[in-house]
Amino acid sequence: MRILVVNVNTTQSITDSIGEQAAGTASPGTEIVPLTPSFGAESVEGNYESYLAAVAVMEAVRAHTEPFDAVIQAGYGEHGREGLQELLDVPVVDITEAAASTAQFLGRTYSVVTSLDRTVPLIEERLHVAGLSARCASVRASGLAVLDLERDEKAAVDAIVEQAARAVEDDRAEVICLGCGGMSGLTERVAERTGVPVVDGVSAAVTIAESLVRLGLSTSKVRTYAPPRPKRMVNWPPRTR
User: Is there a domain that residue 147 lies in?
Assistant: First the structure.
């Protein structure tokens, strides 16, 4: 089985970290193929960057020539999962939805701890669209930019733990979801310091993708995610000079 894990930003070190986390979760015989988009922002922390990332992720997958059995979209928020489901006949799993759905097996309520406050509405909207918001106690911001997670890991863990602990104490969350692909690898440390299960979206997405492939299931093509209709595209993909 081969699974593409697509970073939504263009920072290669984050792609590497996501790939390592995915590979560490994957079952024997599953090959993880990390992909970095060829264009876009170095980190995705707002609506403009998110919509640009959606196009970049779809194009990265379209440009991949080797066969694959599933795709994981490794970014929290809105990054074009629906578009990928139209384009592909293999399962597509978004880490936002993978983490939240997994959390609901582990406790009555869950909270998401993410990066900057401006990303909170994007995640809330994604959870609402996915039908996963009813049991979400809160989405909290650590105050860290995505790239800060790499610069000072101890400070990142401390900031995430602080918000996770407040989610458990103040918001009555029973499970914590790490709300950023760049937080991969921090689950054990956050769990140790909060005393509740902590779900990493990349790991959750890998196990879900593997299960869908083994069950022989993929996206329904009856209506919502039917393939795009053939039509003339104007200046797409953009011509480079």
Answer: yes
Helix residue spans in 26-94 (DSSP H): 47-63, 81-87
Q: How far does Cα 24 stand from its chain's mean position?
A: 16
- Alpha carbon distance 74, 185 (integer Å): 14
- CA-CA distance, 61 to 145, in Å (whole number)? 26
Domain annotation covers residue 239 = no
Q: What is the DSSP letter of 142?
A: -
- Are 15 and 83 within one domain? yes
Do 147 and 76 have their domain in common?
no
Instruction: Give Cα 80 to chain centroid, integer Å.
Output: 11
Judged against a pLDDT cut of 70, whether residue 141 lies above it is answered with yes
**Same structural domain, 113 and 169:** yes
Model pLDDT for residues 157-210, shown as the tens digit of each residue: 899 999 999 999 999 999 999 988 778 778 888 899 899 999 999 999 999 999
Q: State the average pLDDT over residues 23-40.
A: 96
Residue 238 located in a structural domain: no
Average pLDDT, the chain: 93
Structural domain of residue 122, as residue ranges?
Answer: 96-201
State the Cα–Cα distance between residues 52 and 60, nearest whole angstrom.
12
